[in-house]
Amino acid sequence: MIKKFLSLFLSPSLSRLLLQPVALVVLLASSVPALAELELTISKTSDDGIPIYIANIPGGATGVIEGDLKRSGRFTIIERPKITNLSAFGGELNGGEYNDITDYIVRGKEHEGGLQVELISTSDNAKTTYTISKNTNPRRVFHKAADKIYEKITREKGAFDTRLAYVTVTNKTSDNRQFRLYVSDSDGHKPQVILTSKQPIMSPAWSPDGKKLAYVSFEDNSSAIYVQDIFTGEKFMLSSREGSNSAPAWSPDGTKVAMSLSFNGSPDIYIVDAKSGDFTRVTTSSAIDTEPSWSGTNSIVFTSDRGGSPQLYQIAATGGKAKRLTFDGKYNSAADIANKKLAFITGNRGAYNVAIKSLSGEGKDFLSNGTLDESPTLSPNGAMVAYTTMKNGENSLAVVSDNSKARQFLTSPVGDIREPAWSPYLNH
Amino acid sequence: MRSIRTKLVVLPILLSALTIVGCSSQNVDKDTTADGSITSSTTTEDGTKTGTVGAGGASGVNSKDSQGDRSNFNYLPGENNGNNTNDITLAGLNNPDNLLSQRIIYFDYDKAAIRPEYMVLINTHAKLLAKYPSLKMRLEGHADERGSRAYNVALSESRAQSVKNIMGVQGALSSQIKTIGYGEEIPIVRGQSQESWQKNRRVEIKYDDY
């Protein structure tokens, strides 16, 4: 019955926008076995970051806040035994007494189901108190606290209270292969299955409101781009034209989705209205044009092999002449843009690595050193990059700070995990 | 549901003539040499590359002029060689001795160009389509795991399109052929080796019911 439903759905003769019954999604999700928690391995943390000491907070906040600040590559966590005589939350504290040990001290306590934290600067004893209200996911309370601390100290918005979408596959070379689209907290906790399929699921892309995912599915021997509400499961098909429907990317205002379509012959970049399904063509080359990423409200960075090898180009969303952005190396692709930073894959002598550069600037910094790294995705503040890397023959996720000082790996115990997509800031 | 069968059988006889010509642009450039789309090869003094393509069953034979050279094949489909195993007929699709039972075309790294040695295979399937206008075919393109996933979808779609274009020249109708690019999502084999990568860079010819 499911098959029949889906084939009905994917029939190109039907209108492009068709509401998917919620029941089907629930059915698919409920057939999935227990959710697989990811295994975290810390590869390195910064030892020359801003020193900060997090006092023990009852309820589990301490570890989460420490983990978040470490991941940013901007902090060095002072070990707990270094300070033993600290007064409790709200108590007297002479910051200068600890100035040799740390720049900042964080104390906290549970508060009406949420959390109160105070951030004390040991140099001037200045204290800032934050109250975080309760949440159905308690870890989000801790991430929000980490965001407050991060923003106060770095003057840059924190992005720990965000999510990751990613795809897992089990039995990848057998006919029993199973693809799953997951959404988790940005640190890999609380994974939820959004979609299950025996056919590939690819390229998850967050809507700017953080409520919907666009993705590519391959049911019934065709590719199609769907948009699915991650909370209600409601979904609709946005594009199922002949040939490839690939690489969706939401416009900053959330009204349009850029994508690569090949119904006119070679894959080109198109912009599709997220409501009406109406489309406009952006590129017209006979080469491969794909992987669009919005670099502004009216500008798109994409991958093209029009020059003989895959390179990044920039073009107005209304079309016109494309400007080449990358010249180093024979393989530059998979651009992701946040906070005026551009993360991408660069290939050199058979190795594919994540690099980062300023959107407008020259040069680049390498952020990874694997041989088959791919799918970089920036946190919305541009401070961290999640990507896929090969470990022991399986893909796992890695998260690296934009200064490369902190790196951790998220491994799925049940197989291959790939294509992370970092959500925007959450306003809900 | 109708069953869809994939034929992974490779006929050593037909591919035994397979040779990689050193000067053939789609086979060798700096990229492919560095990244090694050729599983094992030796370069002779005259610059001719001979070797084994990881396509399974293909053994290297030295001949620079293998493109379309009939002498490299023991028989050609459609010719009456006495047992009718090579007729371009629907029955041929299910005959393991018939070229039509061969359904995989392999590609070079980051290339959608057809290697010359696959022209006969592609033309044979095209002739079948031309003969049976109601017959439908699906060309499923694939890429190896290197490089970015969405680019590989486009690359594998382009590979399928390359095959379709040649079939069109041979009289197959566009409406008979559907292309799909799966990128690196459905590898045939695991492993990070030149051999594995070569086996995964392919277009599979699929007929419903055959």
In short:
With 428 residues, chain A is mainly beta. Chain A has helices spanning 2-10, 22-30, 61-71, 138-154, and strands at 39-44, 50-54, 75-77, 104-111, 114-121, 127-132, 163-170, 178-185, 192-197, 201-206, 212-217, 224-229, 235-239, 245-250, 256-261, 268-273, 279-281, 289-296, 299-304, 311-316, 323-324, 331-338, 341-348, 351-358, 365-366, 374-378, 384-391, 394-401, 407-411, 416-422.
Describe this structure in words.
With 428 residues, chain A is mainly β. Chain A folds into 2 domains: 2-37 and 161-422, TolB, C-terminal domain (Neuraminidase), CATH 2.120.10; 46-154, TolB, N-terminal domain (Rossmann fold, 3-Layer(aba) Sandwich), CATH 3.40.50. Chain A has 4 helices and 30 strands. Chain A has helices at residues 2-10, 22-30, 61-71, 138-154, and strands at residues 39-44, 50-54, 75-77, 104-111, 114-121, 127-132, 163-170, 178-185, 192-197, 201-206, 212-217, 224-229, 235-239, 245-250, 256-261, 268-273, 279-281, 289-296, 299-304, 311-316, 323-324, 331-338, 341-348, 351-358, 365-366, 374-378, 384-391, 394-401, 407-411, 416-422. In chain A, the strands form 7 sheets. Chain A has a 5-stranded antiparallel β-sheet, with no helix packed on it. In chain A, helix 3 crosses helix 4 (138-154). Chain A is globular. The two termini of chain A are 35 Å apart. Chain B has 210 residues and is of the alpha+beta class. The longest helix of chain B is centred in the C-terminal third of the chain and has 21 residues, at 149-169. A 4-stranded mixed β-sheet of chain B has the order 3-6-4-5. A two-stranded antiparallel sheet of chain B has the order 1-2. The two termini of chain B are 14 Å apart. Chain B has a single domain (12-64, 82-207), classed as OmpA-like domain (60s Ribosomal Protein L30, Chain: A, 2-Layer Sandwich), CATH 3.30.1330. Mean pLDDT of chain B is 72; it is low at 1-84. Chain B has helices at residues 12-15, 30-35, 90-93, 119-131, 149-169, 194-200; strands at 40-43, 49-52, 104-106, 137-141, 177-181, 202-207. Chain B is built from 6 helices and 6 strands. The chains are: A mainly beta (428), B alpha+beta (210). Chain A binds chain B through residues 3, 169, 172-173, 177, 200, 202-203, 216, 218, 221-223, 242-244, 246-247, 260, 262, 265-267, 288-291, 303, 305, 309-310, 330-331, 333-334, 345, 347, 349-350, 352, 371-372, 374-375, 390, 393, 418-419, and chain B through 1, 30-31, 34-36, 110, 138, 140, 145-151, 153-155, 157-158, 161, 178-183, 185-192. Chain B: It is found in: Cell outer membrane. Chain B: Residues 36-52 have a biased composition (Low complexity). Chain B: It is a lipid-anchor.
